[in-house]
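Our working data are protein records whose layout never changes between entries. Instead of coordinates, the fold is spelled out as a row of discrete tokens. Here is such a record, shown just as it appears in the course material:
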Amino acid sequence: MRPLELRSADVRPPSTSRRALLAGSVGNLVEWYEFGVYGSLATVIAANFFRYEGSSGAEALVAAYASFALAFFFRPVGAVVFGRLGDRLGRRPTLIVVVGLMTLATAMIGLLPTRAAIGAAAPWLLTVLRALQGLSAGGEFGGAVSLMTEYAPVGRRGLYGAWQSFTVALGLLTGAGTAAALASALPAEALNSWGWRIPFLLALPLGAVALWLRTALDEPPPSAGAAARADIVPAGPRELARAVVLGIGRIMGWSAAGYTFLVVLPSYLQAALGASLREALFATALANAGFATSILPAGALSDRIGRRPVMLSGALGVVVLALPLLHLLQSPSSSPWSRGGAVLLAGALVGLMAGPGPAMLAEMFPRRVRCTGLGLAYALANAVFSGCAGLVITALIARTGDTAVPAYYAAGTCALSCCALLSLRGRGHREPLG
């Protein structure tokens, strides 16, 4: 007899599932494109908005990352507000609102006057727009992952959920690639004065496409015959809170290592290792390429063998290899090929966690609280372990002088994630969504 999931109605046409997949993922691309741009151009943004007379470049960079981190702490608020709307009113209207808010806030950053033009108001205006981005990003993940996993065909929930992470990778890669292309095409003076605005303004056409796709979307139907899984599904506020905390533990390594290797890397290579902006951006593009390459295979593999072994492989890989890979980047005798391979591998290890991660979170919560529960777990993990990554790493390096801090941070959080991932049930990936 086939598993219960295979006996559900699941009569959704493949074209409907593909449209839902595309509509759910394109908003993530817009969101993470901006984060990739901000991380890649952090030193330029710091100079334009946070550098004042008498301050150092390091102080300005720390302030820029503080603004970066603040946006992440608005994500849990967005996850609760938009998650509740998504659970009560539906996935579609919520996803339309959040992508519109993200698009407008990102484009407005490209129009902001700098500190040289309006003084101390400039960094505050930038921080307000970052907060709006944080609100929309908090609602984006829960709604998009709920949509994609609820529309997923039989036995492909891991692969469909992996598209959320894949479009994150595409967004980061597109953002880093756009920044790298501008750094190569424009003189440094032009990039610092006006060229940095171009990537933020490009969010407008990307967001318009996302809005068009989402307005034509239908609500996902409930899975026929889906049984409640009382052993892991929250039944009340206390159980929901416990599930959120467990979810945070399972993805904290993904959050921390992802931002360390994929977003913080450009400024780290420049500030700590003396790399040029172009070299740093190229390394970041390679890391994001490794990340993108491993995500979909990891999600598909988790549909066959389970979420736990795939995610554990990635987390353990970071624990074992983070320090050796960083030493390889630091060594003057390392060849460009070996350094490129190091950042590719680092990104790929994060992809092993990010591929099955969305489906794993969706499987922890029933439909009535799925947007809120998985969105809150993801938002809190990102607020604490991702949003603070650049601030913590930069500040600790400045205080201790130890350039191995990024490796310790990534490996330590992944070690804790391994403990939480051991609690994953072996066959949860084959059971229906509640």
About this structure: Residues 1-11, 224-232 have pLDDT under 50 and may be disordered. The chain has 20 helices and no strands. Residues 121-151 form the longest helix (31 residues). Residues 99 and 237 are 29 Å apart (CA to CA).
